[in-house]
């Protein structure tokens, strides 16, 4: 199912707007992963473990968005916005949310 941050799909007219759809994923931090990420921060370099977790969480949120669109009879999502928030008392959790408008194209 096509998903875009733009308000339309180029060359494909939107036949019907089906409302706002969302997908949210919350992931927890792992103590060992945090420790190794901190070491990387000290010596330099990117934290591949965190990058993979963020990519997985983003993909899952988009998949939930697509599933909700499909459940409403949609075959696309326009105007998608991705947000990242640190949550929890100690900031030990990360929420990735995706929202957009389900459409029939």
From TrEMBL:
Protein family membership = Belongs to the UPF0145 family.
Q: List the Pfam families hit by this protein, alphabetically.
A: YbjQ_1
How is this protein named in the record? UPF0145 protein AAV99_02840
Q: Which organism encodes this protein?
A: Aurantiacibacter marinus
Query: What highest taxon heads this organism's lineage?
Result: Bacteria
HAMAP family reported for this sequence? UPF0145
Coiled-coil-forming residues are: none
Which InterPro entries does the UniProt entry name for this protein? Answer: UPF0145_dom_sf, UPF0145_YbjQ-like
